[in-house]
Amino acid sequence: MVHLTSLREILESWNVDIEISYLQHLEKKQRRQFGQQITKEANIDKMNDELAQECIDGLKNLEIHNYPQAINTEVSLLSLFCGLYGITNESIRAEEMRNIRQFNKLTSNAEKNYGQAASSGERKPNPWILTKILKYHNKCYYELTIQPLLKKNYDVKKQQKMTDTVQQIEKHEIDLKDAFTLTDVSSKTLNGQYENKLEFVAQDLLKVIKVKLGIKIVSQNPKIFSAFQGFKYVQVDEIDQTKIGQFLALVKDTISVTNELIYEYLLNWIAYIIQKAGKKIEIAPILQGLQSIGKNIFTNALCELLA
Q1: Are residues 83 and 183 in the same domain?
Q2: Would you give the distance in Å from CA 3 to the centre of its chain?
């Protein structure tokens, strides 16, 4: 007896060829991506009305069974209702509810358990099941109508993801000390580090563009990268003196040594920095005094405020 050590050897002994071309591999991979409808939060993505309506229009001339089986073998009431209850547009959903019996053939058991299956499907909504039903049981309609819409839906989400990524980079993710050039982009491309994900290319190109066009501490020009991205805290409409009383007392009694003129000057100095963000004040007070009297408390509060 010959012992075959791998699945490949077993299939080859049966003259089954499992090799596919690289183009076929890419096509299959792309189709799988079109069908990925789970969000980053692990929720089922919503189906837009255009795709939902086309799915409904294709659910005709099907033989619908009662007992759930794998979708690629037969259509069951449960899978159909799970798909229908996943459609958020109530008018589209109601249309197919009316069409199930009118345009399809239900087995006797399916007719008998129609109400129970509808109730079970309502508890497990997933509209994308409908695309799977059409893929296996109305293949021509799926390839001509549904698949192009899935690709369109995928492209829209991909473009939105790229837009969100670029906006995120503009605000937070550019390291100004990173000497990144177009040569680095080319090198990463040749090494396959982008994995055909355009959003990663956009990230790196934006690094280059921002550095080439210029960097300023504060700039309203969208073509200039602004190092200042806003204050950590937002401005309040009303001031709660109880929350700042201790700090003001420190500034007045310790930092200003109860000198009203110095106290007023320091408050104006702090206000100018915040109100005129980006402008050079050209003045830096020097704090002198004994250890542990509150100098660091004063400067730490300012650093936190301006972070």
Answers
A1: no
A2: 49
What are the angstrom distances between the C-alpha of 157 and each of 69, 83, 135, 194, 197? Answer: 32, 21, 22, 19, 13
Give per-residue burial for 24-42: e unless 16+ CB within 10 Å, then b. Answer: eeeeeeeeeebeebeeeee
Based on the fold, state whether residues 144 and 59 are members of the same structural domain: yes
Average pLDDT, the chain: 77
Q: Tell me which residue range forms the domain holding 180.
A: 174-226
pLDDT tens-digit map of 202-258: 555 555 555 445 566 667 676 666 666 677 788 888 888 888 889 999 999 998 888
Residue 64's H or E segment, with its range, is strand 63-65
Q: Same structural domain for residues 124 and 50? A: yes
Residue 106 phi, psi (nearest 5): -100, 135
Q: Helix, strand, coil % (nearest 5) of the chain? A: 60, 5, 40
